[in-house]
Design a protein that fits this description.
six-stranded parallel β-sheet; Rossmann fold; 15 helices
Length: 395
């Protein structure tokens, strides 16, 4: 009788975003290769329509790393014979408390650019200072200059990354550029063979519409610390007078929505709509011609590969190796704009939108590019990693 290996994934929120989509794809592919998978989630949505993998909620709704949750995860792993424990992204902060008490193999999957947390923490302070003059002055005169001088947040982030690296058996990056950045910054070699590169996967839609409208879309959560949709509104202010037949649709929700809507009114923007949150964004991809992404940092930008798979040409600030790799070569599979040049972005957007032949050809190009990120390609690499870890465990 075949010995079925067991994999447990840990998520803070599930399902909630791109990392969860990746876990679902990995779990389904692994199941077809002799693995049983389960997701342990701090907060979960059981009505999301997911039938696999199995979903188990942690007992404490409070802090993810509460004693009750740590004890539950340890008992579940040890009591159910889990062979591999996969910890994606933000859940990494729980790893140090669990690792000493489990014997299974541990995989850490970095679903973003290395060290993004330092930038996020800095701009989280800026958001908290809104609406309060003294706090705004403190951010501009103290917090931001201090970080640039002392690199307090960066140094703390580096320490956290080293701890996670020490606590795992395999460390997975989204692209080679991130692996090189990690090794160079932390002075870590790969003598132990822990470091791996596996792209996020993108499922090819059964039907891709090529009869697009003159629509530009943003798809994602409306947050300031990372997504910076306010930049897109500034870009639309410059570009929209030169694109009188085009419209901009903002698809997503988040804490910035009211501020962005007020900004759109203040800038007197025309032909812009805020569509809110949609669990199914396929209808927006079906009709849109161009997707814009103006983030300060992005790991991979699943909206970029989703857009490509649906024949929507991405234009994005080249803020990371991941974004640049998805779009590469720029000008063929999308356009990467130097960060964070608002005027250059607007110029590139207008040039693309007004060149119907180039837009048509790039639409075909991006569909082909998206096929290189198929779930089968990524799934095979994950299964190869799992097989290797299970083999080493048995030695």
């Amino acid at each position: 009788m075949t010995n079925i290996k067991k994999i447990a994934f840990l998520h803070n929120y599930f399902p909630a975003g791109g990392a969860d989509k990746v876990t679902i794809n990995i779990a389904n592919f692994a199941r077809n290769h002799g693995y049983d998978t389960v997701v342990l989630a701090h907060e979960s949505s059981f009505d999301f329509g997911i039938t696999y993998p199995a979903l188990i909620k942690l007992p404490d709704d409070g802090d993810l790393i509460s004693d009750a949750n740590i004890e539950f995860v340890i008992d579940y792993i040890n009591g159910n014979g889990i062979d591999i424990f996969v910890v994606p992204g933000l859940a990494g902060r729980i790893l140090g408390k669990i690792r000493p008490n489990i014997s299974c193999k541990v995989v850490y999957a970095l679903h973003s650019a290395p060290f993004w947390e330092a930038t996020y923490r800095l701009y989280e302070k800026k958001v908290a200072a809104r609406g309060h003059l003294l706090k705004r002055l403190k951010w501009h005169l103290v917090t931001c200059p201090r970080e640039r001088l002392t690199h307090k947040y960066l140094k703390s982030t580096y320490r956290d990354y080293r701890k996670v690296y020490a606590d795992c058996d395999a460390y997975v990056f989204l692209c080679d550029g991130y692996k090189r950045q990690f090794m160079r910054t932390l002075g870590i070699g790969d003598e132990e063979g822990k470091l791996h590169v596996i792209h996020n996967s993108e499922r090819i839609p059964e039907n891709v519409r090529l009869d697009k409208r003159k629509e530009i879309i943003f798809v994602g959560r409306l947050t300031y610390e990372d997504k910076r949709v306010d930049r897109l509104l500034q870009i639309w202010k410059i570009a929209s007078p030169r694109l009188p037949e085009w419209r901009l649709r903002i698809v997503g929700a988040g804490p910035e929505q009211e501020l962005l809507e007020a900004m759109a009114t203040r800038l007197e923007l025309e032909r812009i709509t805020f569509e809110g949150f949609h669990s199914n964004v396929k209808p927006f991809y079906d009709t849109a011609s161009i997707l814009c992404l103006t983030s300060t940092f992005e790991g991979w930008g699943l909206c970029l590969t989703e857009a490509q798979a649906n024949g929507v040409v991405p234009v994005a600030f080249g803020c990371s190796d991941g974004v640049n790799e998805v779009i590469s070569p720029s000008g063929t599979n999308g356009i990467a704009v130097p960060p964070f040049d608002i005027d250059a972005f607007a110029s590139e957007l207008v040039a693309l939108a007004t060149n119907e032949e180039k837009l048509r050809q790039m639409r075909l190009n991006v569909i082909e590019k998206s096929k290189t990120y198929s779930p089968e390609t990524a799934g095979e690499k994950w299964v190869e990693l799992f097989n290797s870890l299970c083999k080493n465990k048995e030695l």
